[in-house]
Design brief:
The chain contains 1 helix and 9 strands, in the order ββββαβββββ. By secondary structure, it is mainly beta. The chain has a domain of 106 residues: Neurotransmitter-gated ion-channel ligand-binding domain (Acetylcholine Binding Protein, Chain: A, Distorted Sandwich).
Length: 179
Amino acid sequence: MGKNYAPELQPRDNKGTPLPVYVNVSVLAIPAIDTVNLKYTADFFLSLRWYDLRLDLRDLNDVSTLNSLGPRDLESIWNPSLAFVNALGPFQTEIDSLVDGELIREAEPLDEDFSTAIEGIKSDAFCGCPSSNSLILAMIFSGEKNSIRIKREYFLDYSCIFDLTYFPFDSQVSSISLS
């Protein structure tokens, strides 16, 4: 990450337009419905994925679970913040110990750059034994073509106006509003 990277600024394309954030909500369960207090409880996973042109990513694996981001990594990059509009609390997404972050390899690495090489011990291809000192090149991937994903489970109460006019033959429609 460069010295000029500002994690508080949303990533933008080359024209200055904010880049989109892809949102996925997977509802696991509605464990409680409380018609007296006009609320229900939702258990769901929220997954957010985006690109950040300002980042160069090192040595991405094809298996994205091996490209995990730790809490320190997540705090040092921009993260989208969504508000749970009709939630009864907490009211926005959080970056905490429950968040899983990972880098998703979607494109090939950039051309080799010897300035990123480090000196190391190269092992013999046949026996795996150390054979000589050599330069070890890092594979650098563009943040423009390889995305970042965070995922967290939320267990929240939401407000809902229940119409019980036709109880017990009623149907209800409730929402999880994000902004």
